[in-house]
Design a protein that fits this description.
Elements lengths: L3 E10 L2 E11 L4 E5 L6 H8 L7 E6 L2 E2 L5 H7 L1 E4 L11 H8 L8 H6 L3 H17 L15 H13 L5 E5 L7 H16 L3 E5 L3 H7 L2 E6 L2 E6 L1 H5 L2 H11 L1
Parallel strand pairs: 3-8, 3-9, 6-7, 7-8
Antiparallel strand pairs: 1-2, 1-4, 4-5, 9-10
Bound molecules: adenosine-5'-diphosphate and magnesium ion (MG).
Length: 251
């Protein structure tokens, strides 16, 4: 059994087929790359998996169990978290409090109780988990800084921490390398590998080919809502359909 099985998934927005009969399987503990030109349907696929959109047709199974029609928080509790293309940190909260917000999914408490410190036993566990994760991500020294004070690389590491404190099994990462310089990219690549070493499976949507080729052993290419190719980075790089899709997109 694969960790994630997407079968014939279709998502229609009015007249637009954002996902058109997409099937893919992700094995436990891999870092899968999901690439393709802008508008290919990558973020839409993530939103359907995470329960933010309901597919028009098709099936999604996580650990052998159908998750289509489940609410986002239920899917999050099952172990799927999404890190967003857009920055979703609370800029006026500290690093620590931002990470604490991420615990509300598994601590069975809400964001406000998390920040206000209600429910002492739950909070003690949550705070311990937050410190473990910040330590692991190299952010412990910055825990009292405001998110807005962090450089981009640390902001993204914090976004990853917010996802990690919920103890996910599968992380859907949407363009975590966007806008990063070479040094920040290398650091984020190291962090991504470290996360995977803890047993988390990752699907990575990313345009930065250095990061994709360096992190992923297997890639799925989407184009106009369809799976255009799958294979190792070398196979995909040399696939004529892929080359053409990227070149025509660049015109
Ligand atoms: N909520 C929505 N309503 C209508 N169209 C949408 C919506 N979300 C995405 N789309 C369209 O679906 C297509 C795929 O978008 P998206 O999944 O964001 O692509 P990618 O992440 O690969 O760049 C695009 O044409 C986009 O405009
Ligand atoms: Mg996108």
């Amino acid at each position: 059994m694969s960790l994630l099985e997407v079968s014939s998934l279709t998502k229609r927005f009015g007249g637009l087929l954002a996902l058109d009969d997409v099937s893919l399987t992700v094995e436990e503990n891999e870092i899968r790359g999901l690439i393709g030109p802008n508008g290919a349907g990558k973020s839409t696929l993530f939103k359907n998996i995470a329960g933010f959109h309901k597919p028009t047709k098709g099936a999604i199974a996580f650990q052998g169990q159908s998750i289509v029609g489940q609410k986002p928080h239920t899917i999050a509790e099952m172990g799927i978290v999404r890190t967003f293309q857009e920055t979703t940190l609370f800029q006026e909260l500290t690093v620590f409090d931002n990470a604490l917000v991420g615990t509300h999914m598994t601590a069975k408490t809400d964001v406000f109780s998390a920040i206000l410190g209600l429910d002492k036993a739950v909070q003690r566990r949550a705070r311990k988990k937050v410190m473990e994760v910040l330590d692991f991500m190299g952010l412990a020294d910055r825990k009292d800084q405001l998110a807005s004070e962090l450089p981009l690389g640390s902001q993204r590491a914090l976004a990853l921490s917010v996802a990690l404190v919920s103890g996910p099994k599968l992380m859907l990462m949407d363009e975590p390398f966007a806008g990063m310089n070479a040094e920040e990219t290398n650091h984020m690549m190291d962090l991504t590998r470290k996360v995977r070493e803890t047993g988390v499976t990752i699907v990575l949507v990313e345009h930065d080919m250095k990061a994709v080729m360096g992190l992923c052993s297997y890639l799925t290419v989407l184009n106009f809502g369809q799976v255009l190719a799958e294979g190792t980075p070398d196979e995909v790089r040399n696939n004529e359909n892929v080359i053409e899709a990227y070149l025509s997109g660049a015109k």
